[in-house]
Amino acid sequence: MSVYQATTSAPVNIACIKYWGKRDTKLILPTNSSLSVTLDQDHLRSTTTSRADTSFDKDRLWLNGIEEEIKDGGRLATCIKEMKKLRREVEDKNSNEPKLSTFAVHICSRNNFPTAAGLASSASGFAALVSSLAALYALPASPSQLSLIARQGSGSACRSLFGGFVAWEQGSLPDGSDSLAIEVAPQSHWPDIHALICVVSDDKKGTSSTSGMQRTVETSPLLQHRIKNVVPVRMEAIKKAILARDFDSFARITMQDSNQFHAVALDTDPPIFYMNDVSRAIIALVTEYNRVSVENGGMLKAAYTYDAGPNAVIYTPKENIKDIVSIIVKYFPQAEAFKDPFGLFGAQGVGEG
Ligand code: DP6
């Protein structure tokens, strides 16, 4: 008897231009395009094994060893259904292909990063789920085509189908067929950029991205200005900066966009606070570090960015990492600089939320 099984993995990505708002909540179509950096190819990954077998009576999924319910019509069910649909197309074209689309699947997913890093795992998780089913079903699909399905699991997941610098183009078609991820540049184009993660708190966030962004769409006037007038200009400018390896512009735009994302969260009714005092203190440190460099005739050396939580991600050219870690450890003496077994640089326990 043949065994139909495939294992693949997908990395975490951190946005420089933030996705925040949906124009279609079922298809997960965003109100603006976004752009991210996929973190190192070997670290911070979700690894997923999918297996199809005639003896399975229903689709099941385990996340870090714990079974998750696959709710009818939910995001997991949608992704699995869409992947089976693509498999059916392969089977319809070639009648010799085993009818895997009719078998139930069992899916096992694990994250190789410490849960304490407080990083959202839905992006790497859904990207790994979709890519493992694509491998199981031997689909002739490109990463951009797969991103259309990963997007329906979690918006930011569509960007994790590529390494390096990735744009999620919002698209305009009502069926979402042009709302997909594209590669702006591979990691090898600019390998000098590193991400330093400062774990401020590993508590589960108070307001989830999904519900928070919906409330922002419904109540924030500032969001309307952001999506019409700000993001389109920034998307073009940051792509240009990446292609030119212009860290100064890349850093400026990344910090401005993080700030505006947190401003629209604050402009939401009732307001949403993702950063805390420690997050803001790290912003002050990076700002001061950059100010000293610029005053001495240099350029910006580091860029902070924050997602829907208090933890900082600092993008910086490799030469500055040691410097920045030692500054953080100096100002937050309880912080422990670590280089974990996966080679992830970070500062843990920077402060409590
Ligand atoms: C702040 O992709 O988690 O990290 O589509 O509802 O699953 P859903 O939301 P999600 O939102 C991510 C928001 C963000 C910004 C970003 O990654 O672009």
UniProtKB/TrEMBL annotation:
SUPFAM superfamilies for the chain: GHMP Kinase, C-terminal domain, Ribosomal protein S5 domain 2-like
Catalytic activity: (R)-5-diphosphomevalonate + ATP = isopentenyl diphosphate + ADP + phosphate + CO2
Domain Diphosphomevalonate decarboxylase-like N-terminal: 10-181
One Pfam family linked to the record: MVD-like_N
GO terms of biological process kind: isopentenyl diphosphate biosynthetic process, mevalonate pathway; sterol biosynthetic process
Matching InterPro entries: GHMP_kinase_C_sf, Mev_decarb, Mev_diP_decarb, MVD-like_N, Mvd1_C, Ribosomal_Su5_D2-typ_SF, Ribsml_uS5_D2-typ_fold_subgr
Gene Ontology CC: cytosol
Domain of life, per lineage: Eukaryota
Top class in the EC scheme: lyase
EC code: 4.1.1.33
Molecular function terms from GO: ATP binding; diphosphomevalonate decarboxylase activity
UniProt keyword annotation of Coiled coil present: no
Keyword Lipid biosynthesis in record: yes
Pathway field: Isoprenoid biosynthesis; isopentenyl diphosphate biosynthesis via mevalonate pathway; isopentenyl diphosphate from (R)-mevalonate: step 3/3
NCBIfam families, per database record: mevDPdecarb
Family named by the database record: Belongs to the diphosphomevalonate decarboxylase family.
Protein name in the entry: Diphosphomevalonate decarboxylase
Organism: Hermanssonia centrifuga
